Amino acid sequence: MGDFRALLQAHVRRESTNGVGKLLARWWNALLACDGTAVYIPITVVTIAAFCGSAWQIFLPRTDPARYQCYALTFWLGSNAARLLPSSQCAFLHVVQPQPAFHMLPLEYPPLTLLPFSLPLLAPILNYQIAFALLMALISALIYWLLLRYGPRGGALIFVLYIFIGALATVQIRFDLIPAMLTLLFIIAAEQRCWTWAYIALAFAVLFKLYPILFLPSLFIAEQQKHGLFYTPPTSISLTSVPRYLWLTLHGASDWRWKNLFLSLGILLAVTGAFALLNFQGAVLDQLNYFVQRPIQVEATGSTFLWLVMHFGVPLHITYTYGSLNISSKLDGWVSLVGELLFIVGYAYTLWMQWRGRLDIAQVSIALLLVFIATEKVFSLQYLIWLIPLLAYVGAFDAFWLCTWGSISLLTTFILYLYLRPVDLLLIPLIPGFMQAVGVRNALFVLVTLAYLFNWFEARRRKPVPLTQ
């Protein structure tokens, strides 16, 4: 009787699971079957939800869009323009003496970011943050359209799903969608063999955020490989034969196509140089100093290690500098050094795999981003936005990705929720569950990074894109 009851319960559970699965599959197929204007219902719903998710920050003087407004106003009108805003809003600029117009540049961002920062100034000054959110909504709709046009079946829907569970409260108050869109554009252009446009898109991505510079060598390699100008070694090679194959590769450098690379570098130098004529310190040096001198941010992978060793007698301190919560410890120098070494190894290994023909340009870009974020001193909440369009484009939404990336996204949203607790800012990492959630999220992110590099669980498998492109 007991065996019969167990079999009956298992049958009921199986039928229930099958019923739920069939229901979800039916909804999914119904969404994929939408055409005409109905196909934009998902992005419309998520856009409205994003407005609701970030509405609590509208009109606050210390949000990221509030900083963007300070940068834009003080660039066009000089430092005295800060008086048009609440006194606390632009206090982070630390203006010692009055600065003229066209001289003050963003402290931590490339100067071309003044373009998206300035467009919302066309709206009334009190509605700046709403106008900025509308601009980001337009960018997200453009990414959605690109995925509908060039991505795999279901890629656009996964884009809005990943945004919904992992970036709903950040997608419209950060400008990271712009470099993410340009990164997607350069990959699409490269896979369509529109090499000049790929290099142009990548150059402008770098001019908005520095991280896409990681992709320039991989784009150059991909271009040479597509034209048959880059020697590809055999599938199986020994370490002793690597120098000979590298020499065979470099020996053909005179036949490589350099024009597009020089075009991309020329755009970077021309735009940065134009701003450097206005303020060399702000256009070049401030960004590099900001990047090099930043301590380990409280959500970075290294912070998890420092938090763990704290329980073995190594004290740490929480500080608020560089616009974020950071961790200081007597081991933070060593942790930063190990992270840099791991990044170099991961970067070199990824290009090694591309050289051997194991990775295409989209896979290389995702791998480099994963390695960079996993080993970097900073892991901000909006970094997921960099990866989401690329994951949707390659079809990273099988069981492995839905479980791992879905968990990473939900944990990131939970961490953001803890930031909203009404406590002193420096006490946030001490809230029960904060560092634990950060640690689990970082461990999952490292797992995803390793899985992608070594293709565990077939993590690099791509879904086919439409043939009619």
Walk me through what this model shows.
By secondary structure, the protein is mainly alpha-helical. Among the domains are: 39-150, no CATH class; 294-469, no CATH class. Helix content is 61%, strand content 3%. The chain contains 18 helices and three strands. The chain has helices at residues 2-32, 41-54, 64-77, 114-118, 128-150, 155-166, 177-191, 195-208, 216-226, 242-251, 259-278, 280-293, 301-310, 332-355, 361-375, 383-394, 399-419, 434-454; strands spanning 296-297, 316-321, 324-329. A three-stranded antiparallel beta sheet has the order 1-3-2. A hairpin with a 2-residue loop joins strand 2 and strand 3 (324-329). Helix 6 (155-166) packs antiparallel against helix 16 (383-394). The longest helix has 31 residues, at 2-32. The chain is globular and about 65 Å long. The mean pLDDT is 89.
Please count the beta strands (DSSP E, at least 2 residues each).
3
Task: Please outline the major beta sheet.
Answer: 3 strands, antiparallel
Major β-sheet strand ordering: 1-3-2
The H-and-E topology, N to C, reads as HHHHHHHHHHHHEHEEHHHHH
Instruction: Count the DSSP helices.
Output: 18
Helix share bin = 55-70%
Oligomer state of the chains in this structure: single chain
Principal-axis shape equals globular
What share of the residues does DSSP label as strand, in percent? under 5%
List the helices and strands and how they pair.
Blueprint: H1 2-32, H2 41-54, H3 64-77, H4 114-118, H5 128-150, H6 155-166, H7 177-191, H8 195-208, H9 216-226, H10 242-251, H11 259-278, H12 280-293, E1 296-297, H13 301-310, E2 316-321, E3 324-329, H14 332-355, H15 361-375, H16 383-394, H17 399-419, H18 434-454
Antiparallel strand pairs: 1-3, 2-3
Helix pairs in contact: 2-5, 2-6, 5-6, 5-7, 6-16, 7-8, 7-16, 8-11, 11-12, 13-14, 13-18, 14-15, 15-16, 15-18, 17-18
